[in-house]
């Protein structure tokens, strides 16, 4: 049994009950609302101390379903995500003696080490940035993202835990897909952030972020990740196959209705790679026929605007002016990288340089700062050569999951490794078109790869 899940002693429960009564008394004296909030917070703190992995699991779920998080916990003074991450980190510190093996692994795991190096180099780059305010905001985000990575690697330390954490990818994609349908067809939206709401009709057609408060395109990248995980899992294992196939069907339709071209490109590339992988399988022709038949059945439900949007990639009649702006992002990014090759322009500073008058003649440029929609170039522009630590973190994550797929201790570990590997690959492909360095999934997926490798390494070899 893992050292992170001991049975709760009676003393802890008694202290929790007495503490709750004290919290109610304090609340009644100070403010009636606190009489309810304080004991709930205290009991949740005790629960988190006893079962910290459940806190990490909730972080993984709300990394995608952050709109659901805000709907449930929007009344809190700070976001549930930040509070839970901070509280779980405190638990890790308080239980350091019990969790010494997990902490040792965390300190030695290359994915975590490279992530920490990236964080340190980001601070160095920020010192020389032109806009210190943007740099500080980016650093705060990077700190919280690295904390998420560290907690996943530390607490997802058993086969059961890493399995639950990975199944959450498919489960949250299914949930987000259903919420997307509810939004588009019933007009019931839970999104609150401007990024999710302003893009709804800004391009002439309805778009939805589902259960996320990210913009629809970024939300689609996370949705695609769970869909690809479900696809490969269904191909590789009979376990939960019907659930995974349902997730695949519903999630695929949601990816289409998200109108995210980048997600479709990523999906297509992964499907081609899977076709090559299974090219010798006798059932491949039947599967292709089934896929084509399913597409034909879905055609009546796909809006005409979708085909115009996809056609715009190739310069069709649905030409999109935003494609010119995306070209400008990359031109400006390459120019900035050429001028700042060592430490870059500073974390989060691309929007500051995007509005520089020097680039005023480029197509699609606006007077509002914009992120560089290419994670790999964006990080390179921010940190210059120091960005190699970030790319090393991602590359080592892929290498870790590949190592598990090649030498799994159990058949289930092989299935999880293949599913996660293709899902992570799809996400990275889509990140060619998005500034995903600030998206929680980038760090979560890399952490899951590392955690899966460490769990597989500690398992006993089959006899």
Keywords:
mainly alpha; disordered N terminus; globular; 21 helices; single chain
How would you characterize this protein structure?
The protein is mainly α and 463 residues long. It has 21 helices and no strands. The radius of gyration is 23 Å and the shape is globular.
Q: Could you list the spans in which at least 5 consecutive residues all have pLDDT below 50? A: 1-31
**In what range is the share of β-strand residues?**
under 5%
Give me the number of helical elements. 21
Helix fraction, binned, reads over 70%
User: What is the alpha-carbon Rg in Å?
Assistant: 23 Å
Shape: globular
The secondary-structure class comes to: mainly alpha
**Biggest beta-sheet profile:** none
Terminal residue distance: 21 Å
Q: How many individual β-strands?
A: 0
What is the N-to-C order of secondary-structure elements (H for helix, E for strand)? HHHHHHHHHHHHHHHHHHHHH
Mean pLDDT over the full residue set: 85
Summarize the structure.
This protein is an all-alpha fold and 463 residues long.
């Amino acid at each position: 049994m893992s050292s992170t899940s001991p049975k709760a002693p009676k003393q802890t429960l008694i202290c929790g009950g007495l503490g709750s009564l004290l919290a109610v008394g304090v609340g009644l004296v100070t403010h009636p609302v606190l009489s309810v909030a304080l004991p709930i917070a205290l009991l949740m703190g005790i629960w988190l101390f006893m079962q910290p992995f459940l806190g990490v699991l909730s972080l993984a779920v709300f990394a995608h379903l952050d709109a659901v998080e805000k709907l449930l916990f929007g009344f809190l003074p700070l976001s549930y995500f930040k509070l839970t991450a901070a509280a779980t980190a405190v638990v890790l510190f308080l239980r350091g003696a019990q969790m010494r093996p997990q902490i040792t692994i965390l300190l030695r795991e290359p994915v975590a080490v490279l992530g920490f190096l990236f964080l340190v180099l980001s601070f160095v780059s920020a010192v020389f940035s032109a806009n210190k305010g943007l740099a500080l905001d980016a650093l705060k985000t990077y700190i919280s993202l690295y904390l998420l990575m560290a907690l996943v690697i530390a607490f997802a330390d058993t086969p059961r835990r890493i399995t639950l954490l990975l199944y959450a990818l498919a489960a949250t994609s299914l949930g987000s897909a259903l919420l997307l349908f509810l939004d588009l067809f019933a007009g019931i939206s839970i999104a609150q952030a401007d990024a999710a709401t302003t893009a709804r009709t800004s391009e002439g057609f309805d778009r939805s972020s589902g259960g996320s408060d990210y913009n629809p395109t970024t939300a689609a990248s996370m949705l695609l990740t769970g869909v690809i995980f479900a696809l490969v899992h269904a191909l590789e294992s009979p376990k939960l196959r019907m659930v995974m196939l349902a997730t695949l069907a519903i999630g695929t339709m949601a990816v289409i209705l998200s109108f995210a071209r980048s997600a479709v490109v990523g999906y297509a590339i992964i499907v081609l790679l899977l076709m090559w992988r299974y090219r010798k399988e006798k059932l491949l022709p039947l599967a292709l026929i089934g896929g084509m038949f399913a597409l034909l059945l879905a055609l009546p439900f796909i809006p005409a605007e979708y085909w115009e949007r996809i056609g715009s990639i190739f310069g069709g009649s649905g030409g999109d002016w935003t494609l010119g702006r995306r070209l400008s992002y990359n031109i400006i990014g390459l120019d900035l990288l050429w001028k700042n090759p060592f430490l870059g322009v500073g974390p989060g500073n691309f929007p500051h340089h995007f509005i520089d008058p020097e680039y005023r003649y480029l197509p699609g440029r606006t007077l509002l700062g914009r992120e560089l929609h290419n994670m790999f170039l964006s990080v390179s522009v921010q940190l210059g050569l120091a960005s190699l630590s970030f790319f090393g973190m991602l590359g080592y994550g892929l290498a870790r999951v590949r190592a598990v797929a090649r030498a799994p201790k159990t058949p289930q570990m092989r299935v999880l490794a293949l599913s996660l590997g293709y899902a992570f690959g799809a996400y990275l492909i889509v990140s060619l078109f998005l500034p995903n360095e600030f998206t929680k999934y980038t760090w979560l997926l890399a952490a899951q790869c590392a955690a899966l490798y460490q769990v597989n390494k500690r398992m006993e070899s089959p006899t």
